[in-house]
Design goal:
Layout: H1 3-10, E1 15-21, H2 26-38, E2 44-49, E3 63-69, H3 78-89, E4 98-104, H4 114-125, E5 129-130, E6 135-137, H5 142-157, H6 170-177, E7 208-209, E8 214-215
Parallel strand pairs: 1-2, 1-3, 3-4, 4-5, 4-6
Antiparallel strand pairs: 7-8
Helix pairs in contact: 2-5, 5-6
């Protein structure tokens, strides 16, 4: 790992905020999984339920990810409706924020992934910068969600605490987070090192022969 990346990971705020809008629990589960994976990129994640979340607090957040499902014919899930309505009437400027959105929906409905698309457009309209294009997921959401994670996570990890995306670190950050870096990583973010030393064991076996009444 380069000195530049080492310094980047150890300096400043490394917080990541993940907001989920969920009707059946799928978005919440994915948000928790994402938060756990974020540790591999030196990020300290906090998962927020949109229900009761104070949107004004996002003005101090430089890294935000949204995972939101769509309910019915394009509506917000129940836990996201109140927040969405509050954002329509009173929303702050988000010029220092970098974000990405993963939307979950069902192509059998006309308004496919509309809730997630609405959030993506709203954040962009408030001045936030997207680090990764919105990911639209159908009922079988796992494969496209994984694709989104593989790109969005290292990109959001390259945002420094001033809200600047350090694009030149992306490839190294991606390798670092997926353990593809050949260097031995040291420090607070180091993965565990497996001891593969060979062990030799010598055994002596004894048995009793009842036919001959002998031990050997």
């Amino acid at each position: 790992m380069s000195d530049e990346l080492t310094s980047f990971l150890s300096d400043g705020d490394r917080s990541l905020h993940i907001l989920f809008g969920s009707q059946s629990g799928n978005s919440e589960d994915l948000a928790v999984k994402f938060g756990k994976q974020a540790k591999s990129y030196g990020l300290e994640s906090t998962v927020h339920d949109m229900d009761g979340f104070d949107f004004a607090s996002v003005t101090s957040m430089s890294r935000v990810l949204i995972i939101c499902s769509t309910w019915g014919e394009g509506e917000m899930p129940d836990n996201a409706e109140a927040l969405w309505q509050s954002v329509q009437s009173d929303a702050p400027a988000l010029a220092s924020m970098h974000y990405s959105v993963c939307a979950i929906g069902d192509t059998s409905y006309d308004e496919f992934c509309k809730a997630g698309l609405d959030w993506d457009q709203k954040l962009s309209g408030l001045g936030a910068t997207s680090v990764q294009e919105i990911q639209l997921c159908d009922v079988d959401f796992e494969p496209p969600w994984i694709e989104w994670v593989q790109e969005a996570l290292p990109r959001i990890a390259c945002v420094d605490d001033s809200g600047t995306l350090q694009v030149e670190l992306f490839e190294e950050m991606k390798a670092y987070g997926t353990s593809d870096d050949d260097d031995i990583i040291e420090g607070d973010y180091a993965p565990g090192i497996i001891d593969s030393t060979e062990i030799a064991v010598e055994l002596e076996l004894f048995r009793y022969c009842p036919a001959q009444g002998e031990r050997g």
